[in-house]
Amino acid sequence: MNIPDHSQTIEKQLPLATRSRPWGAYRYRRRLFNIVFHILGLISIGVGFAMLGILFVTIFNQGITRLNWEFLTSFDSRFPDRAGIKAALVGTFYTISLTIAIAFPLGVASAIYLEEYIRTNWFSRAIEVNISNLAAVPSIIYGLLGLQMFIRWMSLGRGILTGALTLALLVLPTIIIASREAIRAVPLSLREASYALGATRWQTTWHHVLPMALPGVLTGVILAVSRAIGETAALITIGALTFVMFLPHHVLDTFTVLPILIFNWTSRPQDEFRSAASAAIIVLLALVLTVNAIAIILRQRLRRRL
């Protein structure tokens, strides 16, 4: 049995620059490029992890001696050995909790509307482009927007509510994009089966599409919380305080958060304040990891139920 030779056909399909070269040399060059780029990728990852490890070790060594219960339960002070993070820690908890409560339902509802209800036309495409662009806007722009809208127009003051609304605007594009991708990944056959049984579009979305997409939605929430909890520029723009000696009692009270407190301490000339800032960074990292771990656990449990 004669096996046809396709080498000439393959050679004709190659670019003109490679037709005159032997097939073995062309394959060797591609393999060499793959190896080179693989090595460069590993070096880039190694350098990034090395710099991150050095940063973590430096912060840990500077702040671990300052981290104690008195540091967590004391207010800020002009004396570095008495300064604590009580007001900033409580303010961070209130601000992030209110931000999630505002941004999560709005983001998911917007994603459901854009994926399940809106018609595909120039208006929907314009909305998609604007949402994608808003995800890359610097945070200080959102701070200026919050200053003009919530403080000057709506007269909400410089309290926790204004900060949470500003951060909600900041993370809303991230939640919308991640939620849309999660909803889009739900198989079309699931929707068709629900419609075949007589369910309405809302019943299909609420009882079938949204539960299937919820693990992916929580991924967007994780990214949003991780960004919001470390924001400083937007909150400084709306007038969040840097020195607070009291706890907020309602959403209109003035406040401070851990990133602003860290920024304030690192600008002080005393070395003791830098040690306190390192200890505050450790607390902030622990808070971020805790919130992310809770969201990941919820996501894994939802996936197991599905």
Can you walk through the features of this model?
The chain is mainly alpha-helical and 306 residues long. It folds into two domains: 21-63; 69-305, MetI-like fold (Orthogonal Bundle). It contains 13 helices and no strands. It has helices at 7-13, 16-19, 23-63, 69-73, 86-117, 122-134, 139-153, 160-184, 188-196, 201-228, 233-237, 258-266, 271-305. α9 (188-196) packs antiparallel against α10. The N and C termini lie far apart (53 Å).
Q: Quick summary of this structure?
A:
This protein has 306 residues and is mainly α.
Distance between the termini: 53 Å
Which architecture of the largest domain would the CATH scheme give at its second level? Orthogonal Bundle
CATH class of the largest domain: Mainly Alpha
> Count the strands?
0
Instruction: Please state the CA-atom Rg, rounded to the nearest Å.
Output: 26 Å
User: Could you state the CATH homologous superfamily of the largest domain?
Assistant: MetI-like
Sheet of most strands: none
Can you tell me the residue ranges where pLDDT is under 50 for at least 5 consecutive residues?
Answer: none
The quaternary structure here is: single chain
Q: Total number of helical segments?
A: 13
Helix content: over 70%
Order of helices and strands: HHHHHHHHHHHHH
- What general outline do the C-alpha atoms trace? globular
% residues in beta strands: under 5%
> Mean of residue pLDDT?
84
- Summed up, the domain count is 2
CATH fold field value of the largest domain: MetI-like fold
